[in-house]
Amino acid sequence: MDSTQTRITIDLVLDRLTAKDVLRAVLHSILFHRLFGTIKPQTMEVLDVTMPGVKDAQTEQLIEEKVDAFWKGVESGANKRGQITVIFAEKRPKKTWFSMGEEEIPWENWIINAEVRTDKDRQTFNMNLSTTLSNALLTILTHTSSERGRAVVPLITNSSGISPFPFRISVKVAGVDFIREPYDFGMSKEYVPASKMPTLRELYAERKLRSHLDCISLVQADITTLEVDVIVNAAKSNLLGGGGVDGAIHKAAGPRLLQACNKLNGCAVGDAKITKGYDLPAQVYTLYVIHTVGPVYDTKNVDSKAEQLASCYHTSLELAARNHLRTIAFPTISTGAYRYPLEDATKIALYTARQFLSSPSGDEIDLIIFTMFDEKEKRVF
Protein backbone atom coordinates (compact mmCIF):
# COMPACT_ATOMS: atom_id res chain seq x y z
CA MET A 1 0.00 0.00 0.00
CA ASP A 2 1.17 3.51 -0.77
CA SER A 3 1.75 5.21 2.59
CA THR A 4 0.87 8.62 1.19
CA GLN A 5 -2.77 9.61 1.57
CA THR A 6 -4.31 9.92 -1.90
CA ARG A 7 -6.56 12.91 -2.63
CA ILE A 8 -9.19 12.98 -5.37
CA THR A 9 -11.08 16.20 -6.05
CA ILE A 10 -14.50 16.55 -7.66
CA ASP A 11 -15.83 20.04 -8.48
CA LEU A 12 -19.60 20.54 -8.82
CA VAL A 13 -21.75 23.55 -9.71
CA LEU A 14 -25.31 22.81 -8.55
CA ASP A 15 -28.75 24.33 -8.83
CA ARG A 16 -31.21 24.53 -5.96
CA LEU A 17 -33.68 21.98 -7.33
CA THR A 18 -31.26 19.11 -7.93
CA ALA A 19 -28.35 19.91 -5.57
CA LYS A 20 -29.25 17.32 -2.94
CA ASP A 21 -29.89 14.61 -5.55
CA VAL A 22 -26.51 15.23 -7.19
CA LEU A 23 -24.58 15.22 -3.90
CA ARG A 24 -26.41 12.11 -2.77
CA ALA A 25 -25.54 10.34 -6.03
CA VAL A 26 -21.84 11.29 -5.92
CA LEU A 27 -21.48 10.12 -2.32
CA HIS A 28 -23.25 6.86 -3.14
CA SER A 29 -20.93 6.27 -6.10
CA ILE A 30 -17.78 6.85 -4.05
CA LEU A 31 -18.92 4.50 -1.31
CA PHE A 32 -20.08 1.91 -3.84
CA HIS A 33 -16.53 1.68 -5.21
CA ARG A 34 -14.75 1.87 -1.86
CA LEU A 35 -16.65 -0.10 0.80
CA PHE A 36 -15.34 -3.55 -0.29
CA GLY A 37 -17.71 -5.35 2.06
CA THR A 38 -21.00 -7.17 1.69
CA ILE A 39 -23.17 -4.58 -0.01
CA LYS A 40 -26.28 -4.62 -2.16
CA PRO A 41 -26.03 -2.40 -5.23
CA GLN A 42 -28.66 -0.01 -6.47
CA THR A 43 -28.87 2.49 -9.30
CA MET A 44 -30.19 6.03 -9.31
CA GLU A 45 -31.08 8.30 -12.20
CA VAL A 46 -30.03 11.92 -11.77
CA LEU A 47 -30.21 14.36 -14.70
CA ASP A 48 -30.28 11.42 -17.14
CA VAL A 49 -27.07 10.01 -15.65
CA THR A 50 -27.18 6.51 -14.16
CA MET A 51 -25.16 6.37 -10.94
CA PRO A 52 -24.33 3.29 -8.84
CA GLY A 53 -25.21 3.29 -5.18
CA VAL A 54 -25.26 1.27 -1.97
CA LYS A 55 -28.54 -0.26 -0.82
CA ASP A 56 -28.01 -0.23 2.92
CA ALA A 57 -30.27 1.56 5.41
CA GLN A 58 -27.45 2.73 7.67
CA THR A 59 -25.35 4.02 4.78
CA GLU A 60 -28.31 5.75 3.17
CA GLN A 61 -29.18 7.44 6.45
CA LEU A 62 -25.56 8.59 6.86
CA ILE A 63 -25.50 10.09 3.36
CA GLU A 64 -28.84 11.79 3.95
CA GLU A 65 -27.54 13.39 7.17
CA LYS A 66 -24.46 14.76 5.43
CA VAL A 67 -26.35 16.11 2.43
CA ASP A 68 -28.90 17.76 4.74
CA ALA A 69 -26.09 19.29 6.78
CA PHE A 70 -24.52 20.73 3.63
CA TRP A 71 -27.84 22.13 2.47
CA LYS A 72 -28.64 23.72 5.82
CA GLY A 73 -25.19 25.31 5.89
CA VAL A 74 -25.63 26.77 2.41
CA GLU A 75 -29.18 27.97 3.10
CA SER A 76 -28.30 29.60 6.42
CA GLY A 77 -25.60 31.93 5.07
CA ALA A 78 -24.65 34.12 2.16
CA ASN A 79 -21.85 31.79 1.08
CA LYS A 80 -23.21 29.16 -1.30
CA ARG A 81 -20.01 27.16 -1.49
CA GLY A 82 -19.08 24.18 0.62
CA GLN A 83 -17.07 21.01 0.77
CA ILE A 84 -17.84 17.41 1.59
CA THR A 85 -14.92 15.08 2.28
CA VAL A 86 -14.92 11.30 2.47
CA ILE A 87 -11.89 9.84 4.23
CA PHE A 88 -11.10 6.13 4.29
CA ALA A 89 -8.71 4.79 6.91
CA GLU A 90 -6.98 1.60 7.97
CA LYS A 91 -6.88 0.31 11.53
CA ARG A 92 -3.38 -0.55 12.69
CA PRO A 93 -2.11 -1.80 16.04
CA LYS A 94 -0.45 0.84 18.17
CA LYS A 95 1.62 -0.01 21.19
CA THR A 96 1.15 2.30 24.14
CA TRP A 97 3.11 2.29 27.36
CA PHE A 98 0.47 0.20 29.07
CA SER A 99 -1.22 -1.90 26.41
CA MET A 100 -1.81 -2.51 22.73
CA GLY A 101 -4.29 -0.15 21.14
CA GLU A 102 -5.35 0.81 17.64
CA GLU A 103 -4.97 3.88 15.49
CA GLU A 104 -6.70 4.78 12.25
CA ILE A 105 -4.40 5.85 9.42
CA PRO A 106 -6.12 7.65 6.50
CA TRP A 107 -5.25 6.24 3.08
CA GLU A 108 -7.64 8.06 0.75
CA ASN A 109 -9.42 11.41 0.82
CA TRP A 110 -12.23 12.35 -1.59
CA ILE A 111 -12.92 16.09 -1.72
CA ILE A 112 -16.20 17.31 -3.23
CA ASN A 113 -16.20 21.07 -3.80
CA ALA A 114 -19.77 22.21 -4.42
CA GLU A 115 -21.31 25.57 -5.26
CA VAL A 116 -25.04 26.29 -5.51
CA ARG A 117 -26.06 28.77 -8.22
CA THR A 118 -29.26 30.10 -9.69
CA ASP A 119 -29.43 30.31 -13.47
CA LYS A 120 -32.32 31.64 -15.53
CA ASP A 121 -31.55 29.37 -18.47
CA ARG A 122 -32.41 26.14 -16.69
CA GLN A 123 -32.21 23.93 -19.76
CA THR A 124 -28.62 24.91 -20.56
CA PHE A 125 -27.67 24.82 -16.90
CA ASN A 126 -29.06 21.29 -16.48
CA MET A 127 -27.24 20.12 -19.60
CA ASN A 128 -23.98 21.47 -18.20
CA LEU A 129 -24.72 19.93 -14.81
CA SER A 130 -25.44 16.59 -16.45
CA THR A 131 -22.03 16.75 -18.14
CA THR A 132 -20.40 17.66 -14.83
CA LEU A 133 -22.08 14.72 -13.12
CA SER A 134 -20.94 12.36 -15.88
CA ASN A 135 -17.40 13.68 -15.47
CA ALA A 136 -17.62 13.12 -11.71
CA LEU A 137 -18.63 9.50 -12.28
CA LEU A 138 -15.79 9.13 -14.79
CA THR A 139 -13.33 10.50 -12.20
CA ILE A 140 -14.55 7.94 -9.66
CA LEU A 141 -14.37 5.05 -12.13
CA THR A 142 -11.00 6.07 -13.54
CA HIS A 143 -9.34 6.38 -10.15
CA THR A 144 -10.78 3.28 -8.51
CA SER A 145 -9.91 1.09 -11.51
CA SER A 146 -6.44 2.57 -12.05
CA GLU A 147 -3.23 0.92 -10.89
CA ARG A 148 -2.68 3.69 -8.35
CA GLY A 149 -6.26 3.48 -7.14
CA ARG A 150 -5.90 -0.24 -6.54
CA ALA A 151 -2.44 -0.01 -5.00
CA VAL A 152 -3.49 2.49 -2.35
CA VAL A 153 -6.07 0.11 -0.86
CA PRO A 154 -4.68 -1.62 2.26
CA LEU A 155 -4.68 -5.38 2.64
CA ILE A 156 -8.21 -6.56 3.44
CA THR A 157 -8.12 -8.89 6.44
CA ASN A 158 -11.75 -8.64 7.52
CA SER A 159 -14.60 -8.99 5.04
CA SER A 160 -17.51 -8.85 7.49
CA GLY A 161 -19.99 -5.98 7.29
CA ILE A 162 -20.27 -3.41 4.53
CA SER A 163 -16.67 -2.20 4.87
CA PRO A 164 -13.41 -3.56 6.30
CA PHE A 165 -12.19 0.04 6.62
CA PRO A 166 -13.54 2.85 8.80
CA PHE A 167 -14.55 5.97 6.93
CA ARG A 168 -15.70 9.46 7.78
CA ILE A 169 -17.81 11.99 5.89
CA SER A 170 -17.31 15.63 6.89
CA VAL A 171 -19.22 18.72 5.80
CA LYS A 172 -17.80 22.22 5.71
CA VAL A 173 -19.52 25.40 4.49
CA ALA A 174 -17.78 28.79 4.53
CA GLY A 175 -14.95 27.31 6.58
CA VAL A 176 -17.25 25.95 9.31
CA ASP A 177 -17.46 22.23 10.10
CA PHE A 178 -21.13 21.28 10.26
CA ILE A 179 -20.60 17.58 10.94
CA ARG A 180 -17.23 16.14 11.79
CA GLU A 181 -16.93 12.65 13.21
CA PRO A 182 -13.63 12.36 15.12
CA TYR A 183 -11.32 9.43 14.64
CA ASP A 184 -10.23 7.50 17.69
CA PHE A 185 -6.46 7.53 17.27
CA GLY A 186 -5.78 4.49 19.42
CA MET A 187 -5.96 5.91 22.94
CA SER A 188 -6.18 3.11 25.47
CA LYS A 189 -9.63 2.59 26.96
CA GLU A 190 -8.24 0.79 30.01
CA TYR A 191 -8.27 2.46 33.40
CA VAL A 192 -4.71 2.80 34.66
CA PRO A 193 -4.02 3.19 38.39
CA ALA A 194 -1.47 5.80 39.46
CA SER A 195 0.82 3.07 40.83
CA LYS A 196 1.32 1.73 37.29
CA MET A 197 2.11 5.07 35.66
CA PRO A 198 5.86 5.16 34.88
CA THR A 199 8.02 8.11 35.82
CA LEU A 200 10.20 9.85 33.25
CA ARG A 201 13.27 8.31 34.90
CA GLU A 202 11.83 4.83 34.36
CA LEU A 203 10.87 5.56 30.76
CA TYR A 204 14.37 6.82 29.96
CA ALA A 205 15.91 3.81 31.73
CA GLU A 206 13.73 1.43 29.69
CA ARG A 207 14.58 3.42 26.51
CA LYS A 208 10.92 4.16 25.87
CA LEU A 209 11.97 7.81 25.86
CA ARG A 210 15.23 9.11 24.43
CA SER A 211 17.16 12.08 25.71
CA HIS A 212 18.30 14.37 22.92
CA LEU A 213 21.40 15.04 25.01
CA ASP A 214 22.53 11.49 24.19
CA CYS A 215 21.88 11.84 20.46
CA ILE A 216 23.38 15.22 19.49
CA SER A 217 27.07 16.08 19.45
CA LEU A 218 29.00 19.29 18.74
CA VAL A 219 32.55 19.00 17.38
CA GLN A 220 35.04 21.54 16.09
CA ALA A 221 36.75 19.50 13.39
CA ASP A 222 37.33 18.86 9.70
CA ILE A 223 34.17 17.01 8.67
CA THR A 224 36.08 14.80 6.21
CA THR A 225 38.05 13.22 9.06
CA LEU A 226 35.09 12.07 11.13
CA GLU A 227 34.50 8.33 11.46
CA VAL A 228 30.73 8.29 10.91
CA ASP A 229 28.32 6.48 8.60
CA VAL A 230 27.58 9.55 6.48
CA ILE A 231 28.66 13.16 6.22
CA VAL A 232 26.53 15.94 4.76
CA ASN A 233 27.83 18.25 2.06
CA ALA A 234 26.53 21.81 1.75
CA ALA A 235 26.42 21.64 -2.04
CA LYS A 236 25.55 23.89 -4.94
CA SER A 237 22.45 23.04 -6.93
CA ASN A 238 24.48 21.48 -9.76
CA LEU A 239 26.28 19.19 -7.26
CA LEU A 240 29.53 19.69 -9.15
CA GLY A 241 31.66 21.00 -6.32
CA GLY A 242 32.56 24.49 -5.21
CA GLY A 243 34.25 26.33 -2.39
CA GLY A 244 34.17 25.87 1.37
CA VAL A 245 33.05 22.53 2.76
CA ASP A 246 31.76 21.52 -0.70
CA GLY A 247 35.21 21.84 -2.22
CA ALA A 248 36.88 20.19 0.77
CA ILE A 249 34.65 17.11 0.55
CA HIS A 250 35.13 16.77 -3.21
CA LYS A 251 38.89 17.10 -2.80
CA ALA A 252 38.99 14.50 -0.04
CA ALA A 253 36.65 12.04 -1.77
CA GLY A 254 38.44 12.20 -5.11
CA PRO A 255 37.25 12.38 -8.74
CA ARG A 256 34.80 9.48 -8.44
CA LEU A 257 32.57 11.66 -6.25
CA LEU A 258 32.26 14.23 -9.03
CA GLN A 259 31.51 11.47 -11.53
CA ALA A 260 28.72 10.16 -9.28
CA CYS A 261 27.30 13.65 -8.75
CA ASN A 262 27.26 14.21 -12.51
CA LYS A 263 24.66 11.44 -12.79
CA LEU A 264 22.27 12.96 -10.22
CA ASN A 265 20.98 15.80 -12.45
CA GLY A 266 21.43 18.41 -9.76
CA CYS A 267 19.40 18.97 -6.61
CA ALA A 268 16.66 21.40 -5.61
CA VAL A 269 17.03 23.82 -2.71
CA GLY A 270 15.99 22.08 0.51
CA ASP A 271 16.31 18.62 -1.03
CA ALA A 272 19.08 16.03 -0.61
CA LYS A 273 20.73 13.26 -2.63
CA ILE A 274 23.19 10.54 -1.65
CA THR A 275 26.42 9.10 -3.07
CA LYS A 276 29.19 6.87 -1.82
CA GLY A 277 32.09 8.40 0.11
CA TYR A 278 34.75 7.01 -2.24
CA ASP A 279 38.25 8.19 -1.17
CA LEU A 280 37.38 10.04 2.01
CA PRO A 281 40.22 9.67 4.54
CA ALA A 282 37.86 7.95 6.97
CA GLN A 283 36.25 5.95 4.17
CA VAL A 284 36.47 2.71 6.09
CA TYR A 285 33.82 4.30 8.33
CA THR A 286 32.31 7.11 6.26
CA LEU A 287 30.73 5.16 3.45
CA TYR A 288 28.37 7.83 2.13
CA VAL A 289 27.95 11.54 1.44
CA ILE A 290 24.56 13.25 1.47
CA HIS A 291 24.48 16.37 -0.68
CA THR A 292 21.95 19.06 0.26
CA VAL A 293 21.41 22.51 -1.23
CA GLY A 294 20.83 25.32 1.23
CA PRO A 295 18.98 28.57 0.50
CA VAL A 296 20.57 31.91 -0.31
CA TYR A 297 19.46 34.20 2.52
CA ASP A 298 16.97 36.93 1.63
CA THR A 299 15.63 39.41 4.17
CA LYS A 300 12.45 39.76 2.10
CA ASN A 301 11.65 36.04 2.32
CA VAL A 302 12.85 35.06 5.78
CA ASP A 303 10.09 32.51 6.48
CA SER A 304 10.44 30.65 3.19
CA LYS A 305 14.23 30.56 3.54
CA ALA A 306 13.89 29.17 7.06
CA GLU A 307 11.60 26.42 5.75
CA GLN A 308 14.10 25.55 3.03
CA LEU A 309 16.98 25.41 5.51
CA ALA A 310 15.00 23.21 7.89
CA SER A 311 14.17 20.98 4.94
CA CYS A 312 17.89 20.53 4.23
CA TYR A 313 18.42 19.04 7.67
CA HIS A 314 15.17 17.07 7.78
CA THR A 315 15.53 15.59 4.29
CA SER A 316 19.14 14.62 4.97
CA LEU A 317 18.14 12.88 8.20
CA GLU A 318 15.29 11.06 6.45
CA LEU A 319 17.67 9.92 3.72
CA ALA A 320 20.15 8.66 6.30
CA ALA A 321 17.42 6.81 8.20
CA ARG A 322 16.10 5.14 5.04
CA ASN A 323 19.61 3.92 4.22
CA HIS A 324 20.24 2.62 7.76
CA LEU A 325 23.02 5.15 8.36
CA ARG A 326 22.92 5.66 12.10
CA THR A 327 25.60 8.32 12.63
CA ILE A 328 25.55 11.52 10.58
CA ALA A 329 27.68 14.68 10.60
CA PHE A 330 26.51 18.09 9.38
CA PRO A 331 28.40 21.26 8.56
CA THR A 332 26.63 24.57 9.13
CA ILE A 333 24.54 24.97 5.97
CA SER A 334 24.14 28.28 4.08
CA THR A 335 26.09 30.36 6.62
CA GLY A 336 29.05 31.01 4.32
CA ALA A 337 28.66 32.41 0.82
CA TYR A 338 24.86 32.14 1.10
CA ARG A 339 24.94 34.64 4.02
CA TYR A 340 22.41 32.95 6.32
CA PRO A 341 22.77 34.52 9.80
CA LEU A 342 24.72 32.04 11.91
CA GLU A 343 22.57 32.33 15.04
CA ASP A 344 19.32 31.82 13.12
CA ALA A 345 20.77 28.93 11.12
CA THR A 346 22.00 27.26 14.31
CA LYS A 347 18.58 27.47 15.94
CA ILE A 348 16.97 25.92 12.86
CA ALA A 349 19.55 23.12 12.75
CA LEU A 350 19.16 22.16 16.40
CA TYR A 351 15.38 22.50 16.41
CA THR A 352 15.02 20.34 13.29
CA ALA A 353 17.34 17.71 14.74
CA ARG A 354 15.33 17.52 17.98
CA GLN A 355 12.06 17.33 16.05
CA PHE A 356 13.40 14.51 13.91
CA LEU A 357 14.66 12.54 16.90
CA SER A 358 11.18 12.81 18.41
CA SER A 359 9.56 11.43 15.25
CA PRO A 360 9.09 7.71 14.44
CA SER A 361 12.11 7.87 12.11
CA GLY A 362 14.23 9.22 14.95
CA ASP A 363 14.84 5.72 16.29
CA GLU A 364 16.86 5.01 13.13
CA ILE A 365 19.51 7.60 14.06
CA ASP A 366 21.95 7.08 16.95
CA LEU A 367 23.97 10.29 16.73
CA ILE A 368 23.70 13.65 14.95
CA ILE A 369 26.98 15.57 14.90
CA PHE A 370 27.24 19.26 14.12
CA THR A 371 30.74 20.21 13.04
CA MET A 372 31.98 23.74 13.63
CA PHE A 373 34.55 25.49 11.50
CA ASP A 374 35.85 27.99 14.05
CA GLU A 375 35.45 29.40 17.56
CA LYS A 376 32.66 31.74 16.46
CA GLU A 377 30.48 28.84 15.31
CA LYS A 378 31.35 26.96 18.48
CA ARG A 379 30.21 29.85 20.69
CA VAL A 380 26.92 30.24 18.82
CA PHE A 381 26.11 26.52 19.03
Task: Describe this protein's structure.
- InterPro entries: ATG101, Macro_dom, Macro_dom-like.
- One of its GO terms (biological process) is autophagy.
- Pfam families: ATG101 (PF07855), Macro (PF01661).
- Residues 203-381 form the Macro domain.
- The strands form 3 sheets. This protein has a 6-stranded mixed sheet with strand order 8-13-12-9-11-10, sandwiched between helices.
- It folds into 2 domains: 6-178, Cell Cycle, Spindle Assembly Checkpoint Protein, Chain A (2-Layer Sandwich); 192-380, 3-Layer(aba) Sandwich (Leucine Aminopeptidase, subunit E, domain 1).
- The relative contact order is 0.11.
- Helix 1 (19-34) runs antiparallel to helix 2 and helix 8 (302-322) packs across helix 9 (342-358).
- The radius of gyration is 27 Å and the shape is elongated.
- Helices cover 35% and strands 26% of the residues.
- By secondary structure, it is an alpha/beta fold.
